[in-house]
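Technical appendix A lists one of the benchmark inputs used to test multi-chain prediction within the project. The record comprises three sequence entries:
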Amino acid sequence: MKFSYITEKKQLENIIPILKAEKYLYLDTEVAVKNFKNIDFFSDKVRLIQIGTEKDIFVIDIFKIGKENINILKPILEEKGLIGHNLKFDIKFLKTNFDIFPKIVFDTMIASQIISEGKDTKHSLLAVSKREADLDLDKSQQKSPWHLTDLLEEQIKYAANDIEALRQIFPSLKEKLNQMKTPHKATGETKEIFGVENPVAAVEFTFIPNLALIELKGMPIDKNLLDKMLKQLSSEYQSLYIDFFRKYGIDPFSPQKVANWLTNKLKLKLPKTEKGSISSQDKYLRKYENKPEVQKLIEIRTKKKLLDKVKELNEYITPDLEDENTGRIRSLYRQIGAPTGRMSSSKPNLQNIPPVLRKLFRPAKNYSMIVADYSQIELRIAAEYTKDQVMINAFKQGLDLHRFTASLITGKDYEDITKEERQMAKAINFGLIYGISPRSLMEYASSSYGVEISLKEAQIFHEKFFEHYKGFKKWHEETKEKLKNHREIEVVSLLGRRMKVMKFTDAVNYPIQATGSDMLKMAVNFFGKLKKDLDAYIVNLVHDEIIVEAKEDIKEEAKAILEESMKKAGEILLKNVPIKYEIEIVTNWSEK
DNA sequence: TACGGTAGCTCG
DNA sequence: GTACGAGCTACCGTAC
């Protein structure tokens, strides 16, 4: 493998024409990370930028050349296509260290995830190189000291070698993406630059720089309120704990002791867990809520959960440089965190914040917050997916679908449906997109909606449902038939994301959930493109919800663009069902 | 003392 | 026959 080690400004200038002649480049970076457990994208320094063409590899030493002389690369890295592995990482560092922000990318990690079709496969550069090119990549220098004044020969060679690996895996990954059967072909930059025709890959690749920006921006949080809440919850929790222990002599957080105490002393009948121990889940305790012991137990658990979540948020708070009352929480997102293409969020998880804590999140001074979400998106997708005419018509007429389902099942007029009947229908509607069985419907209706029905009744509701929604019936029957004949089948989202499944419940749920995640990512991409240089940034994404922080004086403009983005994404995927969304300018996340 | 699995709970 | 996905904490048994 031949490569050039670039350590002087003059050398860098000399390679510019070579890079300019290319349509796309291979890219990797090495960063001098102080703490690998907690990578700091703002203070850790980029040491090397490796750029490859099909012929050359240049290992550019930033420390030797000087950060201020890297500007010459900016137009190249921002305008050329870039091929790399987990480019969100590199893009974040290029942005913070050099204000370089690439936009046109082919990511070999994301490509590998897409072609894996949801199977549990490893996607490190090491694993992908082995799989796609039978290459045994040496990763021993990954965490070597990249801050050394003079890098070791093996470090420089290692850096160049990653580019060689990218070169070898790119053609095979591209070929596999293009060979996947999809409902339509991609157009746009990803197609023009890299020749990628797979529409899922096009959406995912375009999404990468947008997600990098979301992570860098971070969710704004009210520092003073957080502090206040932390103190208040702590003291409330402590007194609850002390009271509980004094009264009952039991540690409320020892599952075994609590379970024994509840069954022996209080004579509660509780179900077993999977491993055979006694379960004291809140949902089983709910029917004993009239007992003060049970009530206290639930109360103390609830308080502790809130306290823990606030503590967790508090650990990740960093200052907002322009507003001393605001902190910023920069979560990490896994772009394809679930087999369906849904994202996941961690450190901290900003996708499972309870409503009572959402008021902590509010925009920085002189900024507004815009919260938008798709309404009943999965049911709308399911209607489109199954082409169920009855459900499509209900949506077209703008009916409340839960109420409508209730009227179909009970035979009563739409207007006469009671609250309880609507709740029951809601359980059925949701159960439907998860591949319901009558037994689980019964349990679900009870634990989630507080509606008690017998198994017999659940069976009747189940039948009635399919009697009216014939499109669903057909879809479920066909899916069951396919699974009878094949151990594993493929399902596909409306964009063309393919997933292998073995279980009926996965087979009916995955394509719906996947289409929802396609839609959200497309909406984010449109927003990134349409907003231009408006001071408006997405600060969190929660499956069907987008949260934007926008400068106060342009909030209406930002809101209009966000709305247009969500509408466009929705209308591309749903041709027969209208989409609906809520969008509002708020002072904090909990207003809606 | 560190690690991994399980249970329980939060969100969509 | 099974309701879908994720992350985080605490507990608890096992390995060192």
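Chain A has 22 helices and 17 strands. Chain A has a mean pLDDT of 94. Comparable benchmark entries are summarised in Table A2.
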